[in-house]
Design goal:
By secondary structure, this protein is mainly beta. The chain has a domain at 3-117: 4-Layer Sandwich (Purple Acid Phosphatase, chain A, domain 2). Helix content is 10%, strand content 33%. It is built from 2 helices and 9 strands. It has helices spanning 23-34, 65-68, and strands at 3-7, 39-43, 72-75, 81-86, 89-94, 111-115, 120-126, 130-137, 142-149. Strand 7 and strand 8 (130-137) form a beta hairpin. The chain is globular. The termini are far apart.
Length: 165
Amino acid sequence: GPIHLFALDSDSREPDGRSATSTQAIWLQTALANSTAPWNLVTLHHPPYSSSSVHGSDPTMQWPFAAWGATAVLAGHDHTYERLQQDGIPYFVNGLGGRSIYDLGNPVPGSIVRYNLDYGAMRLEANPHCLTFSFYNRGSSLIDSITLYKPDFFANHLYLPLTVR
C-alpha cells in the first residue's frame, strides 16, 4: 500500500536508549531513507510533543523525524487528542481510545487542535497522491481532519472554476 509504518520503542527502559543516536534511531533514519512508499508514518507510544497536563511532551523523543523523511508522527500515552505541527510535518496525540480522559494544559508551541471532551478514534485514508487523517468522537462527529498532498499533485491535475448561472 501507499503507507510505510515505522514503530519505535519510546519506553524509558528501551535497552538501546531513546536518543537520536540510539540503535533504533539509526535504524529509523536508514529505513526512512530507503523507503519507496509515498507516505512514511512513525508511531510511538510517548508523544514527542503534547499539551496534556498529565504527561506532556517527551523531549527525549523529539528526533529530527521530518529531516529523516517522515511524513507524520503518531503517538498516544496522553489520553487526549491533539494535532501539532513541528518541523513542517503533523504530529498527532491520539490517546482517547477508552480509558480515562486527561485534562489539557497550556498549549505547547505548534499545537493546532486539542480535544478531550469524549473518546474517539482516528481514520487514515491514503493513496499515492494524498493522505487524510480524520479524528471522530464516539458519536461519529468529525473533530479534526487534515489532508496532505504530494507536491506534484496539483501540478498534474487541472482545476477549472465552476460557474453557476
